[in-house]
Amino acid sequence: MAGIKEECGVFGIYDLDGGNVVPSIYYGLTSLQHRGQESCGLAVSDTRGERGNVKFHKDLGLVSEVLRQDVVRKYSGDIGIGHVRYSTTGASVAENAQPLVLSYVKGTLALAHNGNLVNTPELKWELIQNGAIFHTTTDSEVIAFHIARERVHSKTVEEAVLKTARKIKGAYGLVVMSPRKLIAVRDPYGLKPLCLGKRGNAYVIASESCALTSVSAEFVRDIEPGEILTITKDGLKSNMELAGTKKAHCVFEYIYFARLDSTIDGVKVYDARIRGGKSLAKSYPVEADIVTGVPESGLPAAKGYSEESGIPFAFAFYKNSYIGRTFIKPTQEERESSVHLKLSVLESVVKGKRIVLVDDSIVRGTTIANLIHMLKEAGAKEVHVRISSPPFLHPCYFGTDVPSNDQLIAASHSEEEICQMIGADSLGYMQTDYLEGMAGGLPLCKACFDGKYPMDIPDYKDADFMDIVKC
């Protein structure tokens, strides 16, 4: 996929036996690296030490670059959280790296956030009027400030978290750490994933189950939509006061975001993508010699298309794993050149063949056009494109960085026009009605395709107000 950028990943762990959790945070974040490659960090505390003794380290870069061995050795603790970031609100600068750590009158608070709020301006304005000074341009800092403010008037930090969660609107998977507690919070719609694992006497919270596996933790369950789960030395305590009846899980976790070996809300991601490919084969059959996918995200859907159609699956591209993902390139020209550095065509596989090329989306259309050109240059007779998501027509307000409509090729062109523009012999998109079946029957947020948002989106039109609270 090119153009749609990852969300963030969060990780938290509390070892009730007092073991050092820093290595686990490192491995957990490494397994979530696909969710964000701009910055990362960790915050840890020793529950047996002085209250408020939270240490943290964060910076721009990959996990292996920021949490180097010489850095990690300086930190230890039995409770901690971590974060990998792709910016959906706020610039890609070191100040916006997470976790956020606040020292305030009641002690110290650390927070890591995946998602995006839709009422950040009004929440930020409320804080500014009370004298708050912001050090980042993220909505995550707004959440942290509100928790800290509520904590002053609450008996416990989890009560402060509940009061804050009642105010915020949007999508969020949060891990919050006080010096003696680890708290997980999931938005009431279940837009962002969050799960619980256990390893011996240690509890683990992560955006995806693959992070649990990486630290040898057993998957226990998903955090329920609207749940606040508090982990203390006495065990687990769940609060479901935020939970509602309406659910809207982000469809892109199953199409693209999540790692293949993850299970989210009871649905295996690999199986979902196979089902998506099978639906494409039923909807858009074609006579062809081989089916192939755009590495890596298009490969499972391509396998599903092959299984349903009976057309053999083949690898048509070699991927250079040492080239960074195309989305982090700052200009379109650099993104396009990166495609050629990243992928090369296996000429002996494609020469003289009619090819079904499967990918997870078309955003601007430039990447898929380059790939089709490369295939035909290598001797492919025909290239039939199949996309395992519907056309992008609407913006996302919940943490998926869909470009503005003027950059979305499907917003201003018909499928026939797109087919001609990218140089394909035919084009077929996943039908919106098939998405729930792909995701195992889960209720989904598909607003980027159909414009039906699960909640009201505030319309902030006052330019002066937006300048003050710009995030």
UniProtKB/TrEMBL annotation:
[4Fe-4S] cluster binds at residues 250, 396, 445, 448. Its cofactor is [4Fe-4S] cluster; Mg(2+). CDD domains: GPATase_N (cd00715), PRTases_typeI (cd06223). PROSITE patterns: GATASE_TYPE_2 (PS51278). Pathway: Purine metabolism; IMP biosynthesis via de novo pathway; N(1)-(5-phospho-D-ribosyl)glycinamide from 5-phospho-alpha-D-ribose 1-diphosphate: step 1/2. Binds 1 [4Fe-4S] cluster per subunit. Binds 1 Mg(2+) ion per subunit. Keywords: 4Fe-4S, Glutamine amidotransferase, Glycosyltransferase, Iron, Iron-sulfur, Magnesium, Metal-binding, Purine biosynthesis, Transferase. This is Amidophosphoribosyltransferase. It comes from Blautia wexlerae. The gene is purF.
